[in-house]
Design brief:
By secondary structure, the chain is of the alpha/beta class. It folds into two domains: 69 residues, Translation Initiation Factor IF3, CATH 3.30.110.40; 89 residues, Oxidized Rhodanese, domain 1, CATH 3.40.250. Helix content is 27%, strand content 24%. The chain has six helices and nine strands. A five-stranded parallel beta sheet has the order 5-9-8-6-7. Strands 1-2-4-3 form a four-stranded mixed beta sheet, with helices on one face. Strand 6, helix 4 and strand 7 form a beta-alpha-beta unit. The longest helix has 12 residues.
Amino acid sequence: MTMIKSDIVLDAKGLACPMPIVRTKKTIKTLEPGQVIEVQATDKGSTADLRAWANSTGNHYLGTIEEGEVLRHYVRKSTGDVTEPAAFAQTVDNATVEAARQDDSITVLDVREQAEYAFAHVPGAINIPLGELETRHAELDSNQTVYVICRTGSRSDMACRQLSDKGYTVHNVVPGMQEWAFETTTLVSAK
């Protein structure tokens, strides 16, 4: 087991998105600039979530160590003035996406982890997990409007910022899959 010194340990094991980020945001406020928080989580998507959140807030994502089922994430609090970015301005609701998804000029991008996508996703949605978006964004058609969806709107918010910075026209889908009441597709067969 690799030991890395941290100033505080946050137990987020058993929590699903967006709770590891929510708890990290609250806890990191108690740290002094330059101190390190270790976030222990079991949610596989937490690696991409914490990395993207740290980058968007000016904190420094140091890395993750995987030990069995537990992911130990390390984030160093910025020494500068860190402010949480405002929510991505361009949002749409689930009904708007359902009405628009038959349009050939839009793309629905699901930024959840592959396992989440496999069990239920918007028909025709492309899956690029948030943690892979930086290297895979070119798979998207930059001439189309991209509707970005996740479970709650948190990861999709971070994805919208990344894609907008690269010149894509994007909309964050809120509240996302947790309240999706329309048809879904699955990649797994129920037993």
